[in-house]
């Protein structure tokens, strides 16, 4: 069998019971690749096993396109635990992998696998960490050993209990280890030599086997010892060296970050004296025959680590448990119990003594006895008071440089002046001794050192104690670390330590510890060409070692005050005072002193600042909802539903609702909307998805709504990106950047000064109008798209219906559908229709030839065994009757004058049958054309005759016939006359007339007065009717013929004859006769020779000729009704009788197929019931080809849907693509314009809040700031400045950009809460560092990517050995917030990569292909390349790969020398720190060899970066080069240790690294993908690396798609592509790696691997996955930026005029081809002019300019003093009203004075006062009182809302006294003052208010009035009061 499919993926090489118990997968991944050239559909993967150690696995079916691997995931193999448990020996099994299509196996492959015994370990080369599964702490035999060990503890300590790490004492832990060691010694176990190598699988004895057999190998003993230690609560490890294994244990509750530790230094540094973090024990020393005590066993174990070449790895047991490796269950061999075997007792002298005590700091952790809450955990993470902290236990290492200096104060003074010093090596002729602490002691060489230091100091040089090579190495490391620390943490960690406290942990301690006292922040400048380094002080504050002070306070009770802040002198720090203060504090401690050393080193006390920030704020922290949730572990608030689809964003959010100055896609806009709604949430920001621009928009929108924002980023790069974006949109002046390394006082003050002087920017007048226009155009675009894609009642959108129509167009024209059918259709109806049609199609295919089957005319829908026989009999009967009817048929034809067809014969028969037993037919009426006229006449005549006959009969029964001659008309007249006479004549006359008529009566008395008139009427009617009969129309008489006999006519026969005649006439007319036949038939009813009767028709009936024909037609009727045969096809042609006989025979011959046929008919009947019987009819009628039935149905139904939809929608009916494109163009212009207006609006709003500069009160916040600016902040720290101007700062800079450290350092917890806190790169930020910033805000947005780098201790370590410390992953605030199930938003569109291949692997592997990425025009090639380097990994020595490093540097140099290539920025990513340093060194060497290269590199638009996996997150470059480093060693052996990749989070590091490139990635490695054996590791990171290397080497062919990913396009895009292919173009559908595709990509005819045109078909995904701007502007813009030519085809244009639409596409393609061929002639696309941000400012106005003029009432005469009386009150009232009208509000005192002046009243008297009071009371003015003053107001004025300040006077004379100004007006003035001064002391506000109203001095009156004004201002919410008595301005937010 030729395999159609190749299988890929990794299978484990071995499996055992332990691996099954710990869920080790048999298959890591599996792929299937179609090797054929055609698509294979519905292929399943099947895996079976021999022997049956696992269940058979079969996947769900997938479709396989040629050449593209498809990943089958997950492959869940269920292993048989019982089978593996029972294995006693190793055996080889097989795994059969098959690809199955239906029941056919189309590919297979057999692989072998080793099945290991139950107690067999896989060995060192294959998942060595699984040895931990054989460490069984709960084994009964382990319990026995632990119980025995307790006795030794009892003996040594007096307590037999094992406490684990509870005592937090390393000596207590060693005691427990020693006790277990002693118990194992007592077992007297014999030692067996181990196997030659641990590389192959080998057995491990279980505890029962060891203790019962009393023999063990070193590995057996190590495993048993580790099990015992784990049992007692300790963290053990097993250490492997070549040929030997032993055990170890952590002395504190810690683990390694990885399950396997390959670095021997990780152990040696931790067992070092003074560190004492680990204890390792050569446990075989406890075996029989060896009397080694515990302490010596430790030394022996340490000896095995002396040679790094011999070290293999260490397994951290507890770490493996967290990775899922559990102990295997015990296998009991004897009835479920263990048996103890006694091998004798050891001599007591051979049992170990108690371990000796270590010289360590005693019980330090006991100082913190608080309950261990989440906050306590955070505090502990932030404050390291252990000896690992170099701030407490400084040791001189290769990362430190001791300076040769004797006068520290002078050095500090000179450096404080800004002097730069060159760092020099030790003089060649000088030899010094180094102490144990590696500190050069200077006591014995003081004079020499002083001489050298003095001579060099004057030349600005500092000598060190290191030789030139060592100095260069040390300074290089420090320089690198300084750079990394600033970039990553934003904090400088390189300091010059001045003065070191020598201290001891205990009084018994012999080893001194050293802690720096004063830390001077310095910059190290590296000069490449002469390999020199200089140092100078940074513009940061000199620090005291506050961590040391805290340690002294907590652990020794020494509280040294007066050092924080650092004491200063005139030249900087007062070192003598500091040293003196410390010496006084430690006076009581013997041997403690200050050593006046100077060291350049790495010190970090930033975490102390954050620790101090949250230390005593538990209650305050818990008040924040997010922090409270982090503490409780659950969300403590109810979040709103933030789901907002792109379509909803356009529908619900108006353009003016959000301020979005930077372009934003729908996912970004949804995040901005969520932030605007006041929600706290997590924002997922995968690489390149626009996190920074989203944050920028969130900040801008928050500012637009008057909110304050704190943006926090630990990495400087992340913060700078946002800062640059904010600057770019003009918001920079309102954002204060305070990242730690740049928090320079002068820079901060300069920025605040610039903001203060920004001026007031005018608001754009057209902002709202443009917003409305934008909304209108957006609505037009969306309405059209919605109409196209809205799902209709029939279950489809117009687009989908049109695609169905176009896809099946060639099969159309077979069906038609009515409007009612379309209206009745819905999605379920369609499915029902299609389902039945599919059944019909299947039935027809099974039946055979449906179109030509004789059964086609049978519509019987059920068939029983009886049915077929009855049908056959009926057909036979039919043939008999047909034969019998033949001669009679001929006779009939003779009468008709020609051959009659079946239908004609049937009609004739029916006509003749209608005559049976009926009256005569009026023959004359059949041929006549005037029947319609004669019939009413004939009917009238017949009716009159019938009435006449009835009347005569009635009268003849009572009268003689002679009565008909009586003149009844005249008699009636006479009767009426008589009745008018008076009584007697009337009576006589009436009697006479009665008697007259009664004479004709048969019986006398028949006529009476009562009935006489009735008889008169009837007699008159008889005469009338007789006249009508006599005078009948000749035509009527002729029509009736001999039936007419006047009054003697048989009137009862006529109506029947008329009716029959009409019926026959109608039947003849409707019959399918021709004219001659019709005439002949009518002639059969005519009278023959005028004789009465004698019609031919009557003769035919009498002859019986019709009987056989009637029998025939009855037989036909039976076939039609009972067997539902359409007999019309039987009787075709002139010889229809013969044909019918023949066809009935044929039909009878196919009756065996009747059952199948009835099934078909049954389905057709269902279709009829469903409302589409016409479809079934057309199918059975043969109008449709059965194989194409469904496609024909879909085509014609879709066509009907399309027609109906377009006709019913004005939008669709009017659509024209060219007009729609014009709308898009206009919308784009409006969007651009509106973005600029938004920026202008934002700046205008923010500038309006900045107080105008000018003279200010000294105590006001503006005054404080101005003073600080003038003095450069002398004697004022940044924090103190911020504390002094909190309100002003929020107004001027409502946005602060900070690191977590700077938040703690500069923002007081009491600072007003920020409305919004935003974290960036939150995946790298530990929660402990974030909570302080979170608590400073109301809401928090945590932005990050949980699939990228977690927090690490890499950059914040003060550990003793900086070269070898491990990088520990920590919990991140992002992970913790996700664990709370905080609301989440996701950014979905990736923009960084200029080629899709750069992100394709990361997207597929780590983002489930959910990122929308943009395809590239050269999609068929990859920009990820692999360079295989010939070299090796120097594992045992330098841990570098020199060959790779040289290859990388060579490529960098090549690019720098190429003018084109150097336009692309360069980044290098290594997988380890040593490799990073090597590449950096080699590049520096290259610069020295060719200085021009350094010049070129420095001129690049982005600097070259060389980073490792730990610190590259956040960086990006055009070209990224990888140096894997790891690989085969000198001997060609490949370890599966890839450093940080092996960790649990290693895959996240890889994901970061491979997503940094914008244009190109180059992977340099000596290792090949094939060398990575995934069966030897469980690491997801290593698996990802292997896949990435394969991807780099093979391109997209190595990138497996998801199993459910669809293949090529089958929608409208395939229709368009097919049309283009017909015209000779190569067109591919759905081009792209992600879910965002180019619908149709047309290949360049000149360069087939590149696309020349991308075509958008505006499909459903196009509509749903973006806003109108995304769809029509942004996405196309991105594609054009990637090099695409873009065209759009609208399906409505296609439906309207396909040829024109296709030709338009062809023209666009050809134009693109010509532009490429002749770029010089191609029209240049107009670039949008870059608009400079220029803001029009308004002229600055003074404070008084904002006040109104006080209009004083002009005094004029209203009368004389004598007129000022109550009698003339009207005049006084008029004067009062006029003054109030002019000056209100006015004090009553001032009003009184002015009224007196108008009347000339010189002095007030009780009388005048009474007059005034009366007038004021009657004037109608409102009254208010304040203190002793009363004020009058116009009724139109509302005192409570009065906000006018009248402080401008025309002249000094008009100025009011202060007590004449109402407090409400004073409050308005205070509001103006405070809006500029922001906050100030009360006395300054008194003075400023007095000045505003024109008073230079403050009198008691003024103070009282202003005090009342301040009270009014407070009550109205203008101002508030702080705790320190300052008055602050309260800014009202506009709704």
Outline the structure in words:
Strands 19, 20, 21, 22, 23, 24, 25 and 28 form an eight-stranded mixed beta sheet that branches. α3 crosses α6 (218-231), α16 (606-615) crosses α50 (1327-1334) and α31 crosses α35. It is extended and about 180 Å long. It is built from 68 helices and 55 strands. It is α/β, with parallel strands linked by helices and 1935 residues long.
Give the topology.
Elements: E1 5-11, E2 14-15, H1 17-21, E3 27-34, E4 40-50, E5 57-58, E6 62-64, E7 70-72, H2 81-86, E8 91-101, E9 104-115, E10 120-121, H3 140-157, H4 170-186, E11 190-191, E12 202-203, H5 207-213, E13 215-216, H6 218-231, E14 236-241, E15 244-250, E16 260-261, H7 265-271, E17 278-281, H8 294-303, E18 311-316, H9 317-322, H10 374-382, E19 400-402, H11 408-416, E20 421-424, H12 446-457, E21 461-463, H13 468-489, E22 494-503, E23 513-527, E24 532-537, E25 543-544, H14 546-556, E26 568-569, E27 572-573, H15 575-585, E28 593-602, H16 606-615, H17 618-622, H18 625-632, H19 646-652, H20 666-676, E29 681-684, H21 691-704, E30 709-713, H22 716-728, E31 735-738, H23 745-756, E32 760-761, H24 767-789, H25 798-807, H26 819-824, H27 827-847, H28 865-896, H29 902-913, H30 923-927, H31 931-956, H32 968-978, H33 983-998, H34 1012-1030, H35 1034-1040, H36 1053-1070, H37 1075-1083, H38 1096-1103, H39 1106-1121, H40 1136-1149, H41 1154-1169, H42 1173-1180, H43 1189-1207, H44 1210-1214, H45 1217-1247, H46 1261-1270, H47 1278-1284, H48 1286-1292, ...
Parallel strand pairs: 2-9, 7-42, 11-13, 20-21, 29-35, 29-36, 30-33, 30-34, 31-33, 34-35, 37-41, 38-39, 38-40, 40-41, 45-46, 48-52
Antiparallel strand pairs: 1-3, 3-7, 4-5, 4-6, 4-8, 8-9, 10-12, 14-15, 14-18, 15-17, 16-18, 19-28, 20-24, 22-23, 22-28, 23-24, 23-25, 26-27, 32-47, 43-44, 44-45, 49-51, 50-51, 53-55, 54-55
């Amino acid at each position: 069998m030729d395999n159609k499919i190749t299988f890929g993926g990794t299978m484990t090489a071995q499996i055992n019971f332990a691996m099954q118990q710990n869920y080790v997968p048999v298959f890591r991944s599996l792929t299937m690749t179609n090797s054929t050239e055609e698509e294979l559909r519905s292929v399943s993967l099947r895996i079976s096993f021999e022997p049956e150690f696992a269940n058979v696995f079969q996947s769900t079916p997938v479709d396989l396109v040629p050449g593209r691997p498809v990943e089958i995931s997950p492959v869940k193999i269920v292993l048989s635990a019982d089978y593996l448990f029972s294995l006693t020996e190793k055996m080889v099994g097989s795994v059969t992998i098959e690809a199955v299509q239906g029941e056919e196996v189309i590919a297979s492959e057999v692989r072998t696998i080793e099945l290991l015994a139950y107690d067999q370990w896989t060995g060192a080369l294959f998942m060595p960490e699984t040895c931990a599964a054989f460490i069984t702490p709960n084994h009964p035999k382990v319990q026995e050993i632990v119980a025995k060990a307790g006795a030794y503890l009892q003996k040594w300590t007096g307590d037999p209990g094992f406490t684990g790490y509870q005592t937090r004492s390393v000596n207590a832990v060693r005691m427990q280890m020693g006790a277990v060691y002693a118990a194992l010694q007592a077992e007297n176990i014999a030692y067996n030599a181990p196997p030659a190598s641990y590389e192959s699988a080998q057995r491990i004895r279980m505890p029962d086997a060891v203790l019962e057999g009393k023999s063990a190998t070193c590995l057996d003993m190590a495993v048993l010892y580790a099990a015992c230690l784990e049992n007692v609560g300790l963290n053990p490890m097993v250490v492997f060296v070549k040929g030997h294994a032993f055990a170890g244990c952590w002395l504190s509750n810690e683990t390694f970050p990885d399950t396997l530790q390959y670095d021997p230094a990780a152990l040696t540094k931790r067992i070092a004296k003074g560190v004492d973090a680990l204890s390792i024990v050569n446990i075989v020393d406890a075996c029989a025959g060896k009397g080694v005590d515990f302490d010596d066993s430790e030394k022996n174990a340490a000896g095995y680590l002396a040679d790094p070449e011999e070290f293999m790895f260490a397994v951290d047991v507890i770490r493996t448990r967290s990775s899922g490796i559990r102990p295997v269950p015990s296998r009991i061999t004897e009835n479920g119990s263990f048996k103890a075997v006694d091998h004798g007792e050891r001599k007591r002298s051979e049992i170990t003594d108690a371990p000796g005590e270590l010289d360590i700091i005693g019980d330090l952790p006991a100082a913190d006895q608080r309950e261990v809450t989440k906050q306590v955990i955070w505090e502990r993470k932030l404050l390291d008071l252990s000896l690992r902290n170099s701030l407490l236990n400084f040791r001189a290492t290769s990362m430190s440089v001791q300076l040769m200096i004797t006068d520290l104060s002078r050095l500090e003074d000179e450096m404080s002046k800004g002097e730069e010093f060159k760092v020099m090596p030790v003089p060649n002729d000088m030899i010094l001794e180094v102490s144990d602490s590696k500190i050069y002691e200077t006591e014995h060489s003081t004079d020499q050192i002083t001489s050298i230091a003095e001579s060099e100091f004057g030349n600005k040089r500092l000598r060190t104690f290191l030789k030139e090579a060592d100095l260069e190495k040390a300074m290089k490391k420090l320089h690198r670390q300084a750079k990394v620390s600033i970039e990553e943490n934003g904090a400088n960690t390189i300091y010059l330590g001045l003065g070191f406290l020598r201290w001891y942990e205990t009084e018994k301690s012999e080893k001194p510890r050293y802690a720096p006292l004063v830390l001077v922040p310095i910059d190290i400048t590296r000069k490449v060409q002469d390999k020199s380094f200089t140092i100078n002080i940074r513009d940061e504050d000199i620090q005291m070692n506050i961590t040391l002070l805290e340690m002294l306070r907590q652990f020794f009770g020494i509280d040294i005050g007066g050092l924080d802040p650092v004491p200063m002198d005139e030249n900087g720090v007062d070192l003598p005072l500091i040293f003196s203060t410390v010496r006084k504090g430690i006076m009581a401690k013997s041997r403690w002193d200050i050593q006046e050393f100077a060291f350049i080193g790495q010190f970090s006390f930033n975490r102390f600042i954050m620790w101090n920030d949250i230390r005593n704020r538990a209650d305050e922290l818990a008040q924040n909802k997010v922090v409270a949730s982090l503490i409780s572990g659950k969300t403590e608030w109810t979040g709103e539903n933030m789901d907002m689809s792109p379509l909803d964003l356009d529908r619900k959010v108006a353009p003016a609702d959000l301020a979005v100055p930077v372009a934003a896609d729908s996912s970004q806009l949804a995040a901005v909307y969520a932030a605007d709604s006041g929600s706290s949430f997590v924002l997922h920001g995968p690489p390149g998805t626009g996190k920074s621009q989203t944050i920028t928009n969130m900040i801008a929108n928050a500012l637009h709504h008057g909110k304050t924002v704190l943006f926090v980023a630990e990495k400087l790069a992340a913060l700078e990106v946002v800062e640059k974006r904010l600057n770019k949109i003009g918001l920079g002046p309102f954002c204060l950047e305070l990242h730690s390394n740049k928090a320079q006082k002068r820079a901060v003050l300069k920025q605040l000064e610039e903001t203060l002087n920004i001026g007031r920017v005018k608001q754009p007048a057209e902002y709202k109008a443009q917003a409305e226009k934008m909304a209108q155009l957006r609505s037009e675009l969306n309405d059209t798209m919605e109409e196209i894609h809205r799902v209709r009642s029939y279950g489809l959108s117009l687009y989908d219906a049109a695609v169905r129509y176009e896809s099946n167009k060639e099969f159309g024209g077979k069906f038609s559908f009515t409007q009612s059918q379309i209206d009745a259709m819905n999605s379920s109806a369609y499915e029902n229709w299609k389902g039945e049609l599919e059944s019909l199609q299947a039935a027809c295919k099974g039946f055979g030839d449906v179109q030509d089957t004789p059964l086609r005319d049978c519509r019987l829908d059920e068939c029983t065994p009886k049915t077929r026989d009855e049908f056959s009999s009926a057909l036979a009967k039919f043939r008999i009757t047909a034969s019998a009817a033949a001669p009679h048929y001929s006779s009939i034809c003779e009468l008709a004058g020609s051959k009659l067809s079946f239908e004609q014969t049937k009609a004739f028969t029916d006509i003749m049958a209608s005559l049976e037993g009926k009256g005569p037919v009026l023959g004359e009426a059949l041929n006549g054309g005037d029947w319609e006229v004669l019939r009413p006449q004939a009917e009238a005549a017949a009716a009159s005759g019938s009435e006449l006959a009835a009347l005569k009969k009635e009268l003849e029964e009572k009268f003689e016939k002679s009565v008909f001659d009586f003149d009844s008309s005249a008699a009636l007249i006479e009767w009426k006359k008589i009745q008018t006479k008076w009584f007697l004549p009337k009576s006589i006359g009436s009697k006479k007339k009665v008697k007259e008529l009664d004479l004709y009566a048969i019986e006398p008395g028949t006529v009476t007065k009562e009935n006489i008139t009735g008889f008169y009427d009837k007699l008159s009617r008889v005469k009338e009717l007789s006249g009508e009969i006599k005078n009948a129309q000749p035509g009527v008489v002729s029509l009736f013929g001999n039936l007419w006999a006047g009054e003697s006519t048989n009137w009862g026969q006529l109506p029947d004859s008329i009716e029959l005649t009409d019926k026959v006439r109608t039947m003849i007319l409707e019959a399918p006769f021709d004219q001659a036949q019709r005439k002949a038939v009518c002639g059969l009813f005519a009278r023959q020779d005028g004789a009465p009767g004698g019609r031919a028709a009557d003769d035919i009936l009498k002859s019986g000729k019709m009987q056989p024909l009637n029998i025939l037609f009855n037989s036909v009727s039976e076939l039609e009704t009972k067997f539902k045969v359409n007999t019309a096809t039987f009787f075709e042609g002139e010889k229809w009788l013969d044909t019918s006989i023949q066809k009935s025979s044929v039909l009878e011959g196919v009756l065996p197929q009747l059952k199948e046929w009835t099934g078909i008919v049954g389905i057709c009947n269902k279709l009829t019931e469903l409302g589409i019987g016409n479809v079934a009819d057309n199918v059975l009628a043969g109008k449709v080809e059965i194989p194409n039935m469904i496609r024909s149905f879909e085509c014609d139904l879709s066509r009907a849907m399309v027609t109906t939809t377009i006709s019913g929608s004005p939008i669709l009916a009017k659509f024209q693509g060219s007009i729609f494109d014009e709308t898009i163009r206009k919308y784009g212009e409006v969007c651009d314009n509106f973005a600029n207006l938004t920026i202008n609006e934002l700046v205008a709003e923010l500038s309006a809040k900045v107080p105008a500069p000018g003279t200010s009160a000294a105590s006001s916040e503006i005054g404080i700031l101005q003073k600080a600016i003038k003095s450069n902040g002398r004697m004022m720290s940044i924090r103190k400045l911020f504390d002094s101007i909190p309100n002003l700062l929020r107004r001027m800079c409502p946005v602060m950009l900070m690191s977590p450290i700077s938040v703690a350092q500069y923002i007081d917890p009491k600072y007003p809460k920020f409305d919004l806190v935003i974290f960036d790169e939150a995946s790298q930020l530990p929660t402990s560092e974030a909570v302080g910033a979170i608590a400073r805000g109301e809401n928090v947005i945590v932005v990050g990517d949980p699939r990228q780098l977690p927090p690490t201790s890499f950059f914040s370590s003060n550990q003793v050995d900086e070269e070898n410390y491990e990088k520990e992953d920590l919990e991140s605030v992002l992970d913790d917030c996700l664990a709370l199930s905080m609301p989440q938003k996701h950014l979905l569109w990736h923009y960084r990569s200029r080629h899709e291949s750069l992100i394709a692997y990361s997207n597929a592997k780590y983002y489930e292909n959910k990122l929308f990425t943009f395809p590239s025009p050269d999609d068929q090639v990859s920009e990820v390349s692999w360079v295989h380097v010939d070299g090796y990994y120097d594992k045992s020595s330098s841990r570098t790969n020199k060959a790779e490093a040289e290859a990388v540097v060579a490529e960098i140099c090549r690019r720098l020398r190429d003018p084109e290539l150097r336009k692309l920025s360069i980044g290098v990513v290594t997988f380890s720190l040593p490799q990073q340093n090597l590449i950096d060194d080699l590049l520096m060497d290259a610069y020295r060899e060719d200085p021009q290269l350094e010049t070129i590199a420095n001129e690049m638009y982005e600097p070259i970066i060389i980073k490792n996996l730990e610190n590259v997150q956040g960086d990006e470059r055009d070209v990224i080069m990888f140096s894997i480093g790891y690989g085969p060693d000198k001997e060609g052996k490949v370890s599966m240790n890839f450093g940080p990749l092996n960790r649990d989070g290693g895959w996240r590091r890889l994901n970061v690294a491979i997503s940094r490139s914008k244009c190109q990635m180059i992977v340099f490695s000596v290792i090949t993908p094939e060398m990575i054996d995934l069966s030897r590791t469980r690491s997801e990171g290593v698996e990802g690396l292997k896949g990435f290397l394969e991807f780099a080497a093979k391109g997209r062919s190595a990138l497996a798609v998801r199993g459910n990913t669809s293949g090529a396009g089958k929608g409208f895009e395939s229709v368009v592509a097919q049309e283009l292919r017909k015209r000779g173009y190569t067109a591919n559908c759905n081009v792209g790696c992600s879910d965002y595709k180019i619908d149709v990509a047309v290949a360049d005819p000149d360069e087939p691997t590149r696309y020349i045109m991308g075509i958008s078909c505006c499909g459903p995904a196009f509509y749903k996955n973006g806003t109108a701007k995304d769809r029509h502007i942004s996405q196309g813009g991105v594609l054009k930026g990637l090099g695409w030519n873009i065209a759009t085809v609208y399906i409505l244009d296609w439906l309207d005029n396909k040829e024109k639409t296709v030709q338009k596409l062809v023209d666009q393609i050809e134009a693109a081809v010509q532009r490429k061929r002749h770029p010089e002639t191609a029209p240049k696309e107009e670039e949008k002019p870059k608009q400079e941000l220029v803001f029009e400012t308004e002229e600055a106005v003074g404070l008084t300019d904002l006040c109104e003029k006080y209009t004083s009432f002009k005094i004029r005469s209203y009368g004389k003093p004598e007129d000022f009386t109550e009698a003339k009150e009207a005049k006084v009232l008029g004067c009062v009203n006029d003054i109030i009208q002019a000056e209100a509000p006015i004090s009553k005192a001032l009003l009184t004075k002015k009224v007196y002046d108008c009347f000339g009243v010189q002095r007030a008297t009780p009388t005048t006062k009474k007059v005034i009071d009366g007038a004021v009371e009657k004037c109608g003015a409102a009254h208010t009182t304040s203190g002793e003053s009363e004020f009058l107001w116009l009724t139109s004025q509302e005192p409570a809302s009065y906000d006018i300040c009248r402080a401008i006077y025309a002249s000094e004379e008009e100025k009011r006294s202060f007590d004449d100004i109402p407090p409400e007006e004073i409050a308005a003035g205070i509001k103006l003052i405070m809006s500029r001064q922001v906050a100030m002391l009360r006395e300054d506000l008194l003075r400023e208010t007095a000045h505003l109203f024109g008073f230079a001095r403050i009198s008691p009156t003024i103070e009282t009035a202003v005090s009342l004004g301040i009270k009014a201002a407070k009550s109205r919410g203008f101002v508030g009061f702080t705790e320190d008595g300052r008055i602050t301005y309260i800014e009202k937010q506009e709704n």
